[in-house]
Structures are given as C-alpha cells and as structure tokens.
Specification:
The termini are far apart. This protein has a domain of 209 residues. The strands form 2 sheets. Strands 1, 3, 5, 6, 7, 8, 9 and 10 form an 8-stranded mixed beta sheet that branches. The relative contact order is 0.18. β7, α5 and β8 form a beta-alpha-beta unit. The protein is α/β, with parallel strands linked by helices.
Length: 309
C-alpha cells in the first residue's frame, strides 16, 4: 500500500509492532556462525491461580533477573558492554527492607536505546514499597528473589524454579511479580511463573518481549512495548514506573483465566524506528557481525570459567 494511502487511513508503519525477538535471535546467531537454532520453551496451555485474597491483604514478592553489583566483576555500570563475568548461576535473595544495587550488564538488554542508568526500570521494589504504604497491597514479602538467566530449560525447570518456590513458600508469599530484561530472561521468568502458579502462587510478568512470553504460555503478562531493560517503566520517569506496576496489579485482579496479556498504553517514543535495531542482521555489516562473534566467544569463555568456579 502506498505511503499516501497509509497517511489517509492513519496506518502506523509495519515495523511499529512488537519486536519478533525469537526470530531476530535465530537470525542473529545464524549470521555470526551458530547454525543450531535455539529451542524456545513452548506450551499451549498455562496453569492459573486466582488471587486467594484481595491484594490489599496479600504479601507480594519480586522475582528479578538483575544481578547484585560486585565491584570485583568488571564494568557493570551504565552503558557497560555485555559482561559475562557478572552473571550468576544460583538463585539468590535479598532483604526488601534494604536498598539494593542491582544491575543488568550480564544480559542482552537493548544497549543502543537504553543506558541502564535507573534500576527502577528493571527492579520495581521502590514502587512496590509505595504500594504497600498506600494500602494497595498488604505488604512486601521479606525477601525478593534472583532468577539465573539460564539457556538450559532443564536447569530452570528442575533447579531454579523449585528453589524460588521453596523460598517463596517459606516467606508465606501470596503473589509474585516477575521482571525479566533480556530475551532469555523472559523465557526464564515464564518458566518460573508457570511453576509458581502450578504450586498455588498467583503471578504476573512485567516484560517487553511479547513473543517469547506468549510462546511459553504464562498465566498473566503485562506487555510494555519498550526496549529490553525497561520492563518496569521508563528510566527517570517515576510516574511511568508507578503506572506500570499499577497495571500489573490490576491484571492480577482482573484476569479471569490463564494466558491473559494486557498491553501498557505507554509508548517509548513517537518515533518507533528503535524497533528496527535490536540484533537485526539487516542493519549489521559483515565486519560488525565478525566482531560480535569474537566478543561473544570471549564472553562465553569468561562465563564458563565463572560457572566452573
């Protein structure tokens, strides 16, 4: 259809749609020389637990894929390159009564359109504490939980998800809010959410990779059409972070069954051309692809050493 007809009907550009992260990722890794396509978790049904009590009486926790800052592990600051040395491989937890410096240098967020200067965009604890103080939720659970971003479905399903469930049960958690950042993070939180829900804990995922989450079939998903790394709202925009959490809470209350997706009305920017960039091989030169392959292999070796240690 011609551009003039698009203008006449008020159509948006075709690229102004949720980014197809699974296909982009397959094409990207093929282009840098990895020919075995990754198998994304795929289910056609999801478990579902209705709220057992009103949110105003519920104890709510967060499951995050962000990592605690460790000054011994290289550059993890705003704009840092991918840092495999900062990855973690076991579930961790943190005291929600304390402030935490969690970062995302260890995962593949959108580094072109996000500088990672505000952890409120990937760790909504401040907003959850405000919701508790306002009586919107009963209380914040004593601990939040860190889920390792693991490409192994088996490790996530057999080790990490059961460990998070055990800690949540020990804390008498009523509801879990899960916040992924990278493509594989979205799969990880989808598998964890399914496990929690199958074992009695209602969940909602706040995320930016719609195709990955829906492919895995989760109970509830709040989709923000933002660059990866901004699942909890826009950086340095407290109002958007508050609105994003409130939408997730409303979804917890309103979903009548599994595989319920709500899309946030917030837009990242008027110009949606940012969606053309992330791991898009059509935008990358052969030289850039070769550089990325070399860097990826280097980071894999670093991560492999850390895992062995």
């Amino acid at each position: 259809m011609s551009a003039s007809r698009d203008d006449e009907f008020g159509f948006a550009p075709d690229y102004d749609a949720p980014i197809p992260y699974m296909q982009r990722t397959r094409d990207y890794y093929t282009a840098i020389g990895y020919t075995t396509a990754y198998r994304w978790a795929h289910y056609t049904e999801a478990p579902f637990q209705p709220l057992k009590k009103p949110l105003s009486q519920s104890r709510v926790t967060i499951v995050t894929t962000a990592a605690p800052y460790d000054p011994t592990k290289g550059d993890q600051g705003p704009g840092a390159a991918y840092n495999g040395g900062a990855k973690f491989y076991q579930v961790y937890d943190g005291d929600t009564a304390k402030q935490h410096d969690l970062r995302i240098s260890h995962i593949g967020y959108d580094r072109k359109h996000t500088t990672a200067t505000d952890n409120g965009t990937w760790f909504p604890l401040p907003q959850l504490l405000k919701a508790s103080a306002a009586g919107r939720i009963g209380e914040v659970a004593p601990r939040f939980f860190g889920a390792p971003t693991n490409r192994s479905h088996r490790v996530t399903l057999d080790t990490d998800a059961p460990e998070i469930l055990a800690r949540a049960v020990a804390d008498k958690v009523d509801v879990a809010v899960l916040v992924p950042n990278c493509p594989v993070c979205h799969q990880t939180t989808a598998l964890v959410a399914r496990h929690l829900e199958a074992n009695g804990i209602p969940t909602v995922i706040m995320g930016c990779a719609k195709d990955i989450i829906e492919h895995a079939a989760v109970p509830r998903f709040l989709f923000s059409d933002f660059p990866l790394g901004n699942s909890a709202g826009k950086p340095h925009d407290v109002a958007s972070q508050a609105q994003t959490l409130e939408l997730a809470l409303k979804l917890l209350e309103s979903a009548s069954g599994p595989q319920t997706t709500m899309q946030s009305p917030l837009r990242w920017s008027e110009d949606a051309s940012w969606k053309l960039d992330y791991n898009n091989v059509a935008q990358l030169s052969p030289e850039e692809l070769a550089r990325r392959r070399a860097e990826f292999d280097k980071q894999k070796e670093i991560a492999r050493g850390n895992r062995a240690a």
